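User: two proteins, same treatment. go.

Assistant:
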Amino acid sequence: MKKIKDGAFYLGIVGAFSIVMYWIVVIGAGLEKDRNIIIRQSDNNQWQEFIAAMQHNLQHPLAILLAQIVTIIVIARLLGWVCKKIGQPSVIGEITAGIILGPSLIGMYFPEFSEALFPAKSLPNLQFLSQIGLILFMFIIGMELDLKVLRNKAHEAVVISHASMIFPFALGMILAYYTYHSFAPEGIQFLSFALFMGIAMSVTAFPVLARIVQERGIHKTRLGTVVITCAAADDLTAWCVLAAVIAIVKAGSFVSAFYIIALSFMYVLGMIFVIKPFLKRVGDLHGTRENLSKPIVAIFLLILLLSAYATEVIGIHALFGAFMAGTMMPENTRFRSIFIEKVEDVALVLLLPLFFVFTGLRTQIGLLNDPYLWKITGLIILVAVAGKFIGSALAAKFVGQSWKNSLTIGALMNTRGLMELVVLNIGYDLGVLTPEVFTMMVIMALVTTVMTGPALTFINYAFKTKVKEIPVEVKDVSKYKILLSFVTPESGKTLLKLANGLTKKSANQSSLTAMHLSPTNELHHYNTEEYEKEIFKPIIEESQQLNQEVTTLFKAASDINIETADVANKGNYDLLLFGLGESIFQGSLLGKVIGFTTRIINPEKLLNTVTGKEKLFDNSPFDESTKLILAKTQVPVGIVIDKNLEKIERVFIPVFEAQDVALINYAQKLIQNSGAHVVILDASGQIKNNIAAIEKIRMIQQSTPNHIVLQNERVIEKTFLQHQDVMIISLNSWKKLVDTKSVWLTDIPSTLIIAEKTEK
């Protein structure tokens, strides 16, 4: 009845006002009297007019800009994803995307398409938008710098960092001396050209380096701490030096740049003694996600914009102001993490790729059309690698690092990536670098970044018999070792309860390791320790309640599934436990890595599966991530379906196949360690025909009477499963339950699915 009333009201309102509007149009036509109204006559060229109108719309500046953004994001994310798959930083793919879309490839072979997508008149809009992305990115980089780490490890960091800058800086100026006449722009002083060649040779890509260190799993080692600190000090110093170089280039001499440098010094003092205390006060009052309201976010973004504006007006570039604003943010890591989350998606996913493509549009590899030019390019690469690599390695060796660590530091500090492109674009905008030199230097940035991964692999290979950075745990045959791979603390607690049930009374003969793997680009190096502390805190508290000793393992990885299998295999564990669906590591070509997804199997979904309304895990008992771990892991795997597991007192083990007999071993461990009562259902008579299995059950009965029961009935009461705490089942048997849509699935308790090494 209510729907009829609502429908009648709707029709009445629409009808009445339609009549009113029609009446106004009719009487309004009378107002056209004595006016020269042009009435467009219909003709046969309507289709041509429509096409012309569409072409006009496509050429509108906003339409062009939106088309550029869509194309850039798709190509950049696609190539970035490809590079991650082959072990290279995603920034390489994004830079390559810029070169592909520029005159070096698309512009050369498809000039009409290039001119339509990137007309010359549209480039200023693209440039300014990319500059906004850079400003936000430099703000993030400033926030990622942990100045406390710099203060605590200043000695080693300053020595290695400054040596890694001064050596390539000097070599860059020497190179400028020999290339000035042939490659310096007309009207540019040697001082300006030499300073930019020097700074271009001496920068390090701090963000890329930090991600590589995390991905390699050395961020918590002494080497990782040293190299992160060196890169941070390098970044801070490089931006200060760059600001001075820009001031000198714009002024023309050291003396003329004095006023700019003096203003810059006053600006820095104001940021440190006025802005920083103010931001700290605001951050202390609004340091949680709930308190960080939009007006508070507006205050911090306003400080960012004012800081960038001030440095641009002073003459040392807006990017320096953005960087300084980031370093002045409250040092509360939780606050910085929350704020970075608000900024980085727009900055890194939407706006920053525009900068890469704009750089690619400036990069004209076709200009290097002479073997001599390629020789100069090779010389630039050689000088860049020698200066940064050798300078860093020798300085690291001087302060007491081993040769392996010294060479590793040199290889990492040689990474240039995005920071190099920022410097090069500033030099290009100032007219210090010609298109040819700009192209050569972009190629150098690509080469030095690409070579970092292979160089580290080679160094590790060369020193593998001499030095072990991370000692590999040797399997102790007397211990039963379990690896728990968890995503959320709650799932980790469930895995720990189950592992404790298998080892509680045999602590001296067992060891538990709780592992949490996090996607590399989901972490910021500055808050890794706090994140690790928070993720493991509930696990440690649970272990204390259970009186169970547990070792924690935290790693950043680019591929969670492969890393999980790799850790299990190298550690020679006896059992790997993880939650069903928890190991999912999905990447999106159009966005950042999504990370983990936890699927809780609820009774409703299981019921829908049984009745055919819903297919469990996409036509498979497991998702692709779980299947990948099963395929890669060489140790027994336990897949846990958590149904609010609280205790392990009643355990049910169905035996359907001959290999299921091995599950008696888990029954024995649960009985001995947690006093569980186990019911084994010999559904297909596999146990009664296996003398060894019968004997083992008798031995268990003799040592712990009334704790194990063997049943031969093929049918069990429906309520039986509902009263069990845990069901242990083999992988193949679980697959059959799902494939046959067994009615068991609606009532199963928490379930441990065991995949032995021989199971596929």
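Protein 2:
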Amino acid sequence: MKAQRAAVSRPPRVRARTTSIAAFVVLAALIPTTASASGTQEIEVALPYVCTLPSGQLPTTVRISAEFPERADAGETFSPSGVTTTVELPAEAVADLAERGAAQVRAATRLEVGVAQNEATAKATWRGGAEPVALPGSGPLTLVSKGDVPSVAGRGDGDLTFTAGTLAIDLALEAAGGAASTDPASTDPAAADPAAPRSAATGPDSGSGSGSGPDSLTVGCALAEDAPDQGLLATVRVGADGSPSPGGSPSGADGASRSPDREAQGHGREERQGDRSPEVLETAPGAAPDRDDVPPCRYDEQHPPTDVSLNAYVTGYANVNKMKGAAYLPPSCLLIEQGIPVDGPPDPEHIIFDTVSWANFHYQGRKETPPFPSTFLSFDFAPVKATMVLKQTGPIRIDSRIKLRLSDFTTVTDTYVRAPLVAHVTDLEVNGTPLDVGPDCRTETSLTSVDPDPANHPGDHLVLYGRGEQLIGQEATGYLLLSGGTLSGETSIPAFTGCGTADGEDLDRLLTASVSGPGNHIKQVQGQTCAIAAPVFPTPETPGQCTEDLQPYEIPVAER
């Protein structure tokens, strides 16, 4: 919709001031955020680690930075923000990677973090991803990974401490002049969780890392014995004064009480100890929107389904570095045509299948998201409301590689989603006054990511990655196309064009200066798909996948 200017004229200085406010905050309006509030502590810790590579155990420096609140109420959930893990692998590690034929690496990190309160403990895994980095000709290799981390809540009063533990680094290796691997991590199930039992070949104390072949390597790292403060990252005071709750018996790191009557009290005390342990939530708390509040997601006469048609809702957040906040993408409909698996490359230890699927957003017959408005106070006094839409410039491609390990039939699926999406700003109001951004205010090109396989996937597009794992007889974890899950990536926001009108201000340069730039993290959640040809309806014994009118039964919740 084209917004019109107010009919009443205003002095030029007042109009220019309002326009400047609008230009500076137009995308901040899309990104509900405020500046860092008082009571936030920024930490940056350098810790010594010992990492195991094919050449042996090597000393490594790991730098961890994040923002924590200084204080929280008992039971209040919070999540560390701006988490960055920087790993500096020594020159010997670079030589190891070069001997495997690598010219470039792409890293994913998994840092185990101990969370303790009044000696009761819990564990969290901080996951991050890094952009591809070329191997240096000499010297160390620096990998910088960023990502979201689980939320935490203290159960009572008392300091809540965060301590670094084991670190796993999944490396996808790319040869010079060759395509990048689609395996960003080892297929060893232990590599999926640094807290899981590891085989002798992949543990931090082993003689070599383990990967699925020359195109991947998982490096296990252990905190060095001389690490300062035993790896302490941060302390958050919980409660009125941070002192322990009255009557709370202390517990050791293993959760065992130090009270002399421990054995006499028996199992009941163990349960109470568990109730006192800090709560770690893998996803931020939230509730799914009501179905009446999300757009329909069904096939129709203009978009008839086939035997391989799926539909699903997706939602999520996208960071904008310059505005220090995250834009919320409400649940949006995705229509998917699932591909047919074909044989992948030969592997003596696995059966490999590759699948290419295609998808489109579907909103009122168009390949775009619903418009999503946001309202906030700019400079704490000027109410701003803006609306944005993501529009496709081509089909969304979904590449999945399924690896079935012959020894135990464990499957690992790596999925890359490539989406050409242009961001359009459609409406803007400042202090109730519409500002005309014109009919075609948008980014010049699609949101852009570094593609792991640019030779086969040229052009501007967003890249999101997800990994799913399934042990035989157990439910799958992580992301799978059929069951959904979390996808993440990093994008550059291009310059803006077409913003403003012929008789109004040109907002292109101001929007570009305020918003455009690299390094913007995206986290998207896809819900369970509905298979149109074989729908699964809810029963007292079976979770639903489809509604009666063949819409996705699950409406996912966005995660930060």
